[in-house]
Write a structure and sequence with these properties.
elongated, 12 helices
Length: about 280
Amino acid sequence: MFTLWKTESIKSCQQQFLEKFGGRHPPSKSSIWALSKKLETKGTLLDGHTGGRPKMSEETIQNVKDRLLASPKKSLRRLSQELGFSRSACQRAVKKAKLHAYCISVVHGLKEPDQVKRVAYCLWFQTLLKENPGILDYTWFSDKAWFHLTGYINSQNSRIWASENPNAIHEEPLHSEKIGVWCGMSRQCIIGPIFFNATITTAAYMEIFNTFVNQLDDEELSVEYFQQDGVTSHTSHTGMAEIQYFFGDRVISKGLWPPRSPDLTPPDYLLWRYLKGRVYQNKP
């Protein structure tokens, strides 16, 4: 076709194309022109690179992997600055290196002696559970939590578009306003929430405890267990005497209940996380 185009007219080229290949519609003038220019400039009619991203070398992928394994908390933004690659190129390299970004979980800190106490409690309760499979139906796990009411502003992510700096500020109190919530939770139901807004003293805690006890009948009080943590306001002589008056030796508290163990109670394991997620959804 290129030879015909250079030696004869387009019409002759189209006529010979029909004679050789048949059909009713020969190539258009623009098509013949484009093919001839391609053959003239590239020496071939075959397509070269079809576009898309260039292939990433194994050396580059390994370099990215080594850097992230050496500094696991390094951001992709910092990595791209170090390597001189775009952030998207770094993301592709990380994916090819089969590395994944994992969130850091915030857990309660434990001290070395805590493990023995936690295991001892779990073994004790496991024995209790074997002797009476329905024990969770009448074991009350209790806990309190604080809900902060001041809206949270992230100064790094909050932006105001304007032609001049409006010098906007967000006022917060020196001490964040908060409200306390206490709940008692068994496998059957939840008693609460009982609200408070002051530091819990023994007297204040006894008011909460009495509100809780008043919702139980005599039969329940004769068989049920009551769990509380070892906070001083909970385990004072006055407080423990009153709690034991109602529950006798069925009190799971200081001495039996291991310290720093919020994850062993349903309120800490489930209830507070769920409630705070609902409350803070609208940024109170």
